[in-house]
Each structure stands twice: as structure tokens, then as C-alpha cells.
Amino acid sequence: MKIRVAKSDDLDAIVAMMNGGASSQRVELERGMLKNYAPAFNEILRCPNTSIYVGELEGGELIATFQLTFVKGLAFNGKPRGQIESMHTRADMRGKGIGQQMLAHAIELAKERGCCMMQLTSHKERAGAHRFYASNGFIATHEGFKLIF
């Protein structure tokens, strides 16, 4: 598998992966609203501190994705943090070590940028994802809160 930065042609496959799980939060694809993702996707492609990555098989088939943002702050002596968002492996490809490869790639990118840590959030209902992150060295150090508009 090759891991690369996403390009504009990848949006359909990325959204399909995001909507391929059992989460009731992600229903836009089923409603035919793919065009709603395009403005944000195109802005992310231009953002200097955020990139979307895809895992691609030899024939060009996309099977995994994540978004990586480098967050600057004063804490931790001003060192940046790597923030992973929207990490997904296509449903039919789970359990094959792909997510682990993607996560290892994200961690390496963060280290190269001088980050002091990698952080992420995962919905409380995703016990399998929590086990995956814990098995890759992540520890649940904080309780997260959201205010959804």
C-alpha cells in the first residue's frame, strides 16, 4: 500500500469510507449530498498545517484515509501537536493491518514536524477503535467535550 496526500479526485472514495461504518452520525452520502463535502475538502487541500492522506493499492484503489493537522500552542514549551481526524479504513479491508500502517505513517509525519505528541478523539461508542488506538500506544488521558451547532 502506498500512502500519499489526497488530491481532488479522491473525494468520492474518502467520503464513501467515512460513511461506510455503522455510525448514525454520517448519513450525508446516503442522502446524495456529496457536493456538501467539496468546499471543505478543497480548503483543506490548500491549508499549510492540515492534510488528508489516503492509502492506495497498486491499482489506484483507495482503502484508508486520515486527516492530520499540526496544532501550534504555547503548552509543552511551544512544540506543536499532531491531531488525527477522520481516520477510516474501508469496511471490507479492516483487520488487515492497514489502519496500523496509516497510524504509523501519521506518527512519523508528526515526529518529522517536531511534534511533542499525537492526539485524537474517538466517539465513546467505538470500543473497537479504542482498543485499536490503545494497542498502538495511545492512552486515554482526557475527557473530551463538544458543543454542536
Q: Mind explaining what this structure looks like?
A:
The chain has helices at 11-18, 38-46, 98-112, 127-135; strands spanning 2-5, 50-56, 62-71, 81-89, 117-120. With 149 residues, it is of the alpha+beta class. The N and C termini lie far apart (38 Å). The mean pLDDT is 90.
Helical percent range? 25-40%
User: How many extended strands?
Assistant: 5
Strand content: 15-25%
Structural class: alpha+beta
Q: Which regions are unreliable across 5 or more consecutive residues at pLDDT < 50? A: none
Roughly how many Å apart are the termini? Answer: 38 Å
Q: How does the major sheet shape up? A: 5 strands, mixed
Strand order across the largest sheet:
1-2-3-4-5
Average pLDDT taken over every residue: 90
- Order of helices and strands, N to C? EHHEEEHEH
- Whole-angstrom Rg: 15 Å
Number of continuous helical runs? 4
Overall 3D shape: globular
